[in-house]
Structures are given as structure tokens and as C-alpha cells.
């Protein structure tokens, strides 16, 4: 019998079991201590740290493990990109010193204070980020994992340890001489435009940041992101294949060993992205809307069955929608949607068709009774838009969200459902 989505997601947690792995002589990666990995390269007179994770508590825990290996000072820190889970614990690794902190010139972290002259939707982004990662869930064990990291990890000092870069480069490559080692830093835009990879040519080790991890790529994050250039990401994967690495160290999930295996997995990632692009573009050219795209776009079977392309983090459906929005914008091409009926008026008209708000509520109860959870969500939204029997409709919606969460293998969808359900129930508390 095939494993259920929830069983698959639980099994995926093995990717993030806590460990410090020596991937080569003097090169270590700490996995499972936080949402992202931290790597250490031991040199002649100091160490290099690649990424610093999300919080000061997680960074302190990792540093304690690294100090069991060496007491050499941290001379250099490299940020592979600007996502906060890779840069939030830096001050702990500075260890009282002032290491050089290197990244690309277009490094653009959202962890830094926003410009008051340029308003940004920071509050809604924070709320959606909390939902995506299941932050604040109170039921024990509700958050299984993050899709790309462990479910349970310390969050004290989230982002508090960020230290700004001291050195950047704006070309395709920077050769960095530090601690008696030569590190090649290569521009490698993918999940972010400011991404870089670190190449140790003498060891054939490639630190690939978030350009690859063991889950379908997060071409769109439901917390809200700018468009991630799918074609550019695929082109970068071609470049990474060209390194012919013997060990691949992702920013999330466990290292991959063996040149042939690495080439195959990177090629699968590239082919998956290009398949989404090709199918989505063809369907768009045929006049399909985003709602129709998600019924059509699928990974081909030879890719869909790959363990490293399971939809634990990214989603094929969300990717198709994101490609549509990123290339032609929000308008789906149907003139009906140019100036749609406002939500409350639309709900009123649906209620009239059903025989009134009470009749609509009956249909909602029926959908819940037969476990048509998605339809229950949509009916609940109509009832709530009318401010009709709010407590009952809210409860039914929360129950439907929990049921849908338990049918999900995508960690971010599951976490979002569960946090939203918890928020709904809290809204009913006196």
C-alpha cells in the first residue's frame, strides 16, 4: 500500500535529523539545528563559515558543536543569499572578532529596516511567513517539518544576529583567499537574484545555497515573494552541472555524494523547472487561465517519481500560477474579471440563488458532513461575507482547514492551513 501524504511528509523529516557531517577533510556541515544548514571550512589559521542560520539560539548551538572540532577563530563568513534563515545568527559566529563577511553586491535582505519613505506590506508578509512555517502552533506535533528543515528548532533571537556584509562583488566570480584556502564564489541566481555558490576546486565541493534541496523547488512561496525567474534558475542549474562536483552541500537537506548522482539530480531539477515553463507557456498561449492551468500542468512521470522532486516545499500548481502572474500579471485574460462583483455583493447573490443565507448555511453544513472540505471552505467564505452565523461558519471553516492539512504532503500548505485554523478559533474566544 502506498504511503499517505502525511506519512510521506513524516518520513521526509529524516532529511533534517540533527547531525554534524564531515563531508571532506576539515569541511563540516551542521544539519537539523535550524531551518537551514551552516557549513564550516577549517583552514590553517582560522575557519570559514558559510551561512549563519536564522536565530542567535540556533547559531549558538551550532557554534558549540563546531568548537568541539576546532577553536580556530572565524576569519570569514560567506552569505550565499539574503533570505533571513541564512543570515540571522551571524553575531554568534563573529565570536568577539570582526570577520570579513562576503556576499554579492545585489544582496538585499528583508531583515533590514525598511525605508519609511517607501511603504511596504511588512505586516502581512510577517503574518503569512508565520503561517507558512507553522510559527505559533500550540498543538504538540502539529508542525511536522518545514519542507526544507526540521519542525522543531529554537527560534529565540530570530534575525537578531544579522551583521551587514563587509565585502561584496558584482561580477560573475570572486576568488577569495582566506585561512590558507582558495574559495571561488560564483554568481548563481536562482531562488533569489543575489544567490552565489561556493566552489572548492581542490576538493570538488560545491556549496549550492538554495538552488537545490531535496524537495520540489520553491518557485513561489505562499508567504509572498517577487517573481522568481524560472528560466534563470534553470540556466544556473546548467552552470552547476558544469562544475562536476563530487560533493554537493545544499542550504537545506543533507549533502549529496558522487559526481554522477549530483549531475543527475541537478539535471532533474533543471528539467522539472523547464517542464513547468514549457507546459504553462503553451497553455497560456492556448488561452488558459490560472485556475485552468493548475488542472493541466503536471510533472512528467519520470520526474514526478523522483524522491528529490516530491512537493514537500514547492508546488507544481503554485508554480504554474506564479509563472502566469510573473510573465503577464494578475489579469487572467477573461474580461469578466476586469471589474468583478465585490465579495459581499457576490455572496448575497449566491445566497439568493440558494434560497437565502440560511439555505446557504445548510449547504455549508452538508458539505462539511460529507467531508467536501474545499467546497466547505468556499461556502464558508460566502456565509462569512454576509456576517451570517459567524461562529458556526468560522468553526466549520477551521475544521475543514485541519482536515485538508492532514491530507497534505506539502509542509508549507499544511502549516498555513493549521495556523489559519488556529487563528480562526482564537477569534471566537471571549
How would you describe this structure to a colleague?
The chain folds into two domains: 5-271, Metallo-beta-lactamase domain (Metallo-beta-lactamase, Chain A); 341-427, Alpha Horseshoe (Serine Threonine Protein Phosphatase 5, Tetratricopeptide repeat), CATH 1.25.40. It is 40% helix and 14% strand. With 430 residues, it is α/β, with parallel strands linked by helices. A seven-stranded mixed beta sheet has the order 1-2-3-4-5-6-7. Strands 8-9-10-11-12-13 form a six-stranded mixed beta sheet, covered by helices on one side. A hairpin with a 2-residue loop joins strand 8 (173-178) and strand 9. It has helices at 5-12, 56-67, 90-94, 122-132, 230-243, 259-285, 290-296, 301-304, 316-328, 343-354, 357-369, 373-385, 390-405, 411-427; strands at residues 19-24, 27-31, 38-42, 47-50, 74-78, 100-104, 167-169, 173-178, 181-187, 196-200, 205-209, 247-250, 256-257. The chain contains 14 helices and 13 strands. The longest helix is centred in the middle third of the chain and has 27 residues, at 259-285.
Task: Summarize the topology.
Layout (H helix, E strand, L loop, with lengths): L4 H8 L6 E6 L2 E5 L6 E5 L4 E4 L5 H12 L6 E5 L11 H5 L5 E5 L17 H11 L34 E3 L3 E6 L2 E7 L8 E5 L4 E5 L20 H14 L3 E4 L5 E2 L1 H27 L4 H7 L4 H4 L11 H13 L14 H12 L2 H13 L3 H13 L4 H16 L5 H17 L3
Parallel strand pairs: 4-5, 5-6, 6-7, 11-12
Antiparallel strand pairs: 1-2, 2-3, 3-4, 8-9, 9-10, 10-11, 12-13
Amino acid at each position: 500500500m502506498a504511503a499517505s501524504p502525511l506519512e510521506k511528509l513524516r518520513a521526509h523529516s529524516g532529511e533534517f535529523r540533527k547531525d554534524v557531517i564531515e563531508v571532506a577533510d576539515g569541511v563540516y556541515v551542521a544539519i537539523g539545528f535550524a531551518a537551514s544548514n551552516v557549513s564550516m571550512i577549517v583552514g590553517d589559521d582560522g575557519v570559514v563559515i558559510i551561512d549563519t542560520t536564522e536565530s542567535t539560539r540556533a547559531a549558538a548551538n551550532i557554534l558549540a558543536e563546531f568548537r568541539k572540532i576546532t577553536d580556530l577563530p572565524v576569519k570569514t563568513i560567506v552569505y550565499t543569499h539574503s533570505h533571513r534563515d541564512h543570515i540571522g545568527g551571524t553575531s554568534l559566529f563573529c565570536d568577539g572578532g570582526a570577520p570579513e563577511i562576503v556576499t554579492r553586491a545585489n544582496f538585499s535582505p528583508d531583515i533590514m529596516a525598511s525605508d519609511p519613505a517607501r511603504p511596504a506590506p511588512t505586516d502581512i508578509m510577517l503574518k503569512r511567513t508565520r503561517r507558512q512555517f507553522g510559527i505559533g502552533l500550540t498543538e504538540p506535533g502539529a508542525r511536522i517539518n518545514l519542507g526544507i528543515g526540521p519542525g522543531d528548532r529554537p527560534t529565540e533571537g530570530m534575525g537578531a544576529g544579522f551583521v551587514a556584509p563587509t565585502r561584496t562583488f558584482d561580477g560573475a566570480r570572486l576568488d577569495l583567499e582566506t585561512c590558507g584556502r582558495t574559495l571561488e564564489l560564483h554568481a548563481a541566481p536562482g531562488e533569489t537574484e543575489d544567490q552565489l555558490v561556493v566552489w572548492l576546486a581542490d576538493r570538488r565541493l560545491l556549496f549550492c545555497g538554495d538552488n537545490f534541496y531535496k524537495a520540489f523547488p520553491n518557485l513561489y512561496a505562499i508567504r509572498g515573494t517577487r517573481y522568481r525567474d524560472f528560466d534563470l534558475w534553470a540556466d544556473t542549474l546548467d552552470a552547476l552541472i558544469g562544475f562536476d562536483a563530487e560533493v554537493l552541500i545544499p542550504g537545506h537537506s543533507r549533502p549529496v555524494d558522487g559526481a554522477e548522482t549530483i549531475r543527475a539530480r541537478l539535471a532533474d531539477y533543471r528539467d522539472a523547472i523547464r517542464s513547468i515553463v514549457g507546459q504553462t507557456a503553451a497553455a497560456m498561449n492556448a488561452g488558459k487561465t490560472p485556475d485552468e492551468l493548475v488542472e493541466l500542468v503536471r510533472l512528467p512521470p519520470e520526474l514526478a517519481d523522483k524522491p528529490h522532486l516530491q512537493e514537500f516545499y514547492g508546488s507544481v500548481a503554485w508554480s504554474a500560477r506564479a509563472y502566469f502572474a510573473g510573465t503577464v500579471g494578475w489579469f487572467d485574460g477573461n474580461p469578466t474579471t476586469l471589474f468583478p462583483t465585490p465579495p459581499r455583493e457576490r455572496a448575497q447573490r449566491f445566497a439568493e440563488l440558494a434560497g437565502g443565507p440560511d439555505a446557504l448555511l445548510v449547504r455549508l453544513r452538508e458539505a462539511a458532513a460529507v467531508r467536501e472540505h474545499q467546497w466547505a471552505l468556499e461556502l464558508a467564505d460566502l456565509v462569512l461575507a454576509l456576517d451570517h452565523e459567524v461562529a458556526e461558519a468560522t468553526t466549520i471553516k477551521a475544521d475543514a482547514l485541519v482536515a485538508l492539512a492532514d491530507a497534505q504532503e506539502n509542509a508549507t500548505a499544511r502549516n498555513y492551513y493549521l495556523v489559519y485554523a488556529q487563528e480562526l478559533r482564537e477569534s471566537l474566544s471571549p
